[in-house]
Design goal:
Strand order of the largest sheet: 1-2-3
Distance between the termini: 35 Å
Number of domains: 1
Shape: flat
Order of helices and strands: HHEEEH
Number of strands: 3
Largest sheet: 3 strands, antiparallel
Helix content: 25-40%
Structural class: alpha+beta
Strand content: 15-25%
């Protein structure tokens, strides 16, 4: 099983409970990102940065290589507002 298939399986299992929120899926996303490449680390709920308060920062060593904004399953990204849209 690939790491993507494993991630999707975890997300579907969490969603199936009917009790999940946006935050419920974060451990699965963090595990996925951490396994994508050697030396890459996803940090959940990092300190605020110039772009705001992302749900995750992704680092390789001490260098930030990306930010991730996590949304609940089924949330339309085209209907976001305010800072989420930006």
């Amino acid at each position: 099983m690939s790491i993507i298939e494993e991630f999707v399986g975890k997300v579907l299992a969490i969603q199936k409970t009917g009790a999940a929120t946006e935050h419920s899926y974060r451990p699965a996303l963090e595990a996925l990102v951490n396994r994508l490449a050697d030396g890459v680390t996803a940090i959940n709920e990092p300190k605020r940065v110039a772009c705001g308060a992302p749900d995750f920062i992704v680092q390789r060593g001490d260098i930030v290589i990306g930010h991730i904004e996590d949304k609940d399953v089924g949330v339309s990204l085209t209907k976001l507002s305010d800072s989420n849209k930006a």
